[in-house]
Amino acid sequence: MDIRQLEVFAKVFENQSFSRAAQELGLSQPTVSTHIQHLEDFLGKKLFDRVGRKVIPTAEAKILYRHAVEILKKREEALASLLSLNGTRMSGTVKIAASNIPGDYLIPHALKKLKELLPEVTFSVEIVDSSRVVTLLKESIPSYDLGFVGMEVEDPKLETRKILRDEITLIAHPEFERDEIELEELLNLPLLLREEESGTRKSIESSLKKVGIGPTELNVVAVLGSNTAIKEAVKTGAGFGLVSKYSVSDEVECGKLKLVKIKGFSIERCFFAVKRRDITPLPSVRTLWERIEELFSLKSGAC
């Protein structure tokens, strides 16, 4: 039994899928199956039952998983401690899971500062919705060092820092004649929104709830998986969008989209950086975390 087998086993256990574990580990599915088979042979115990397409952990697997998590955690702590010795050059890869706006706009704009701070570090960014970012960081053996989300996170496992204030704005086709509408009129507009698990959607629904408007009162004509998709649809005249101001500044300046104010109503939120509390970070991650507010500069005001 070796550390790699335990790592593969833990991923299969968490995903209850050989294919998803293979994808997260960057391995082929046959390789994952071979690791599990060798581990089962060594232990003389069956670890997973296959029921249709599902992979169900056995009682033995549940016991092994608890110990595997501790072993893998100790490995990461040992590596971090060794690398933090004086004189160690900070290199390697910082893996980041980010929601749409941080991944598409905030991190790219901060990349020059990031490289100046950590010139020998490579930054790897995966873009998923905010809820998925939180899920990935809460895995017993997280594949990501940091997360960036567009919603507040309250979880004892995670530490958060506010990095930037945002406003979610109503956008229209440039031929829309009005610059401002009443809040009641919003309910009748054909709206193009992000999916329910996105930080943008959660912020919209939370702000509307404060003024007594429920999500079912909106006229949602399409749910799209990215701000880019919403912008492109609005450009065709398919409807109106509610998106982060950071995602539309260029299009508004060029006259391809129009901002429409909602009288007496605004949707504001903050973006947050997130990391695990219980895992000793690599020196590069610790350095980045300590300078996170400066790197993303609160140019729009503190949250």
From TrEMBL:
UniProt entry tagged with the keyword Plastid: no
GO molecular function, one term: DNA-binding transcription factor activity
Span of domain HTH lysR-type: 1-58
Keywords: DNA-binding, Transcription, Transcription regulation
UniProt-listed InterPro entries: LysR-like_Sec_metab, LysR_HTH_N, LysR_subst-bd, WH-like_DNA-bd_sf, WH_DNA-bd_sf
Keyword Transcription regulation: yes
Pfam families named in the record: HTH_1, LysR_substrate
Family: Belongs to the LysR transcriptional regulatory family.
Protein name, UniProt field: Transcriptional regulator, LysR family
Source species: Thermovibrio ammonificans (strain DSM 15698 / JCM 12110 / HB-1)
